[in-house]
Amino acid sequence: MKKAVALKYKPPQDSAPKITAKGTGVVAEKIIDIARKQGIPVKDDPDLVEVLSRLDLDEEIPPELYVIVAELLAFVYSLNRKKGSN
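^ thats the sequence. predicted structure below, dont judge the formating
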């Protein structure tokens, strides 16, 4: 079954990214659809989604996930830079 997790990170007000939405099945598809319609990058990483889906809404990611989420943010930032240069 499809799963999705949405993160929000606004430094300096956030000390770490937070879970803003999560769901499975139809809810996951809706999260992905809304993100795409809003121009928010979507990355397919089932292992990361599995770990993040165990967190509560509005919960900051734990320090042991910082490296993998930093890699995800670097991916998003690189996409944003590419979009800005077109």
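Strands lie at 3-8, 18-24.
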